[in-house]
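dumping this here before i forget
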Amino acid sequence: MNILFGLIVPVVSLAVLVAIIVGVVSLSRRAGEEADSDPGIGTLKRVYYYVLGFVALGFASSGVTLLVKGLLDVIFGERVISGGEAQLALALALTLVGTPIWLYVLSLAQRSLREHPVETGTFGRKFYVYLVLGVSAAVGASGLVLLLRGVLGAADFNAGQIALPLVMGGVWYFHWRIETLEGQPSEMARLWRRLYIYLTAAYGLGLLGAGVALFTANLLTTAYDALAGTLLLSPGSDDLWSSGVRGGVAMALVGGIWWWWHWHRVAGVDGQSEPRQVYLYLYAVLGGAATVVVSLSILLYGLLQWAVDAPGVLAASTHFRFLPDVIAGLAVGGAIWGYHSAVIHQEAGALAGGLLAARRVYRYLVAALGLGTLATGLVLLFGVVVGVLVPEAGDSLVGSDWWKQPLDLGLTLALVGVPIWGRYWWAAQREASAHSDEERTAQSRRVFIYGVFGIAVLITLGDLSALLFVILRDLLEGELALSALQQGKWFIGALLMAGAISVYYWLIVREDREAAGEQPAEAMARPRRKSVTVAVSADGVVRQIEAKLGYSVRWWRTLDDAGSQAIPEADIESLADQVNETAGDNVLMVIDATGARVLPYEVS
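structure:
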């Protein structure tokens, strides 16, 4: 049954992958992605080659893995040969069917490359190559974690565990060599490469963080138990090197290697590519910040519970046993958050005009996280107030402690959310006051404000409907009383929270609109601010250009003497007019012995 189940899952997965391939190819054809002057072997034949090749490779690699596992089990005495007939038969069947088909399809694909060089950059081939790289890297990582757990003693070890990472490593290396030799001759190829790199780096970082948190929490828990239990006893070597610590080390080693290779060695500085920005902002920074927020919330919640309940000194060791996990989460989340925030600022500073935009996106993302935490806390606090003011029936709740847990949790989330939201939101407000036109019309600010306002409106509609349902139900049943408000206290809390937030951000929307409309004529006449880089030998000309444009520009010092003297005012005004009239937001101004040139460009 295990063998059959192990076959069903890959087959279903392959079917899903085939459907995805066909759908994406269809979309790409509709978008004109395959409309080259030389179409190569054609889309249908290409899909046939690579879908069949991927399926055959899956069968072949599964069969070889089972063969290697069985061979290692026999060599190291894990299994007698008479007990593995079924596995051997399955391994031979998969290998003998999958390997010849894959080799044949591979030969056809390689021949098509020689006859049609354009094939190296087509959607179908690159999708196949990077899909195999991604799947083999992910499966190999899981197999290597299991192997290291067995080697380190965190789980049972058998020699057959070497088979999966060994075979997947071979599959990955073979296709990586293909990818390296062919390169990325098309934009489609570069897109698939980026998706593979950042997805693999993402789960590598997740494994690394989880592993570090796991062994750190286990070490701290052992030390905590020794200190809080009996101070006369110190942890022994077995306690310090527990199975949890060993498992964490295994995960951290594999995740660290995967992340380091793909992030530091392969990705490099990838400019403003969308997959890199998604990885940095939505995964690393937001994920690290969320880990810190959750850890801080658990810490404050535990402290508030202790202060409200006051269970006594004897129960302290049991109550605060969550501290090692919290400390580990804070350390790992803070490290991920801090490192990737530094990367964002460093990379944005290297791009003309990129630093302000990167800071803005980062600021609103973290502000959204803080606001979400604060909003959840407000729902609980408002609900507790309503529940206390409107008891269910007379004095039936007197002496009840139902409110303690939601009160503690609400205060915790509010105390965590307020400083995070306040710091980043008020920084954005200060920036809006200082640079009103640019900040208030920025896309990231508009997405944040209207997103918050829209979510608040949806929450209002949903909870108002739920509250009305409770009231109308009791009214129609002839049992309408204050108990309806007691039952709907959390709906009322959500309504009060959403109302407060929506009113506040509606005022912000009005403020931004009024600020944009205070001087419409002047705003229409004022040229749009652009990212200007001036290549000249002396900074005197740069100062003249900045004075004429009205904002700062970047300066690249050239090694000739041109531009060392002041330029006539009329020439500076002409250059400024060219900058303002040039299409695009990025402008390079070159001043040398031949004169001055204004060149618009795009950052790719």
